[in-house]
Amino acid sequence: MDYTAKNFDAVDFGGEVDYSNVQWFQEPPPRPEPQPAVQPYVPTEDVIRQNEAFEFALKAAPNVLYGRFKQYGQLGVLAWCSEFGEMIDSLKDLGFSGNMFVATRVQALKTCEDILKLKLEIKMQIILMYLSSQVARLRRFLDGGERQWNDYPVPEFPLDYRTYTS
Predict the structure, then answer these.
(1) Alpha-carbon distance 13 to 149, whole Å?
(2) pLDDT tens, position by position, 13-51
(3) Nearest-angstrom CA–CA distance, 146 and 28
(4) How far apart are CA 145 and CA 9, in angstroms?
(5) Most C-beta atoms within 10 A of its C-beta, which of 36, 45, 48, 84?
(6) DSSP, res 155
(7) 93/8 Cα distance (integer angstroms)
(8) Cα separation of 47 and 45, whole Å?
């Protein structure tokens, strides 16, 4: 079986094609029509209020987290992470509908940095990992994976098992 994909049915007798009667470039190519002017985006009052509410909530989020930590300890952080996850879902809905303002996005990224700068003494590493995953989830949505973030807290798992056994 021949796998060269040559077509043996066609016979080429050689010789040149006569192009002397062909008139080249007699008509100019058709010009493309100009694109219609795009109408500027004018958000509704509801969208403006929703973005302002998210900005307010994002500005308050680090203070609320710190207050929950002072009031309830590590379990307060766990409960706050659940509420923060709900806010992330709502922010994602806002963004996917095309109604998120740049100011809301910038505030959300700043909030993520502020949350990770808080000095919370969290001993339960699973809560620390859950908090970091919520922040990472929001950052991935807002940034699209364009930037590498290195400000996450490092979990302090015991690495040498022999120090905890007899």
Answers:
(1) 67
(2) 677 778 888 888 888 878 888 888 888 888 999 999 999
(3) 44
(4) 54
(5) 84
(6) P
(7) 60
(8) 5
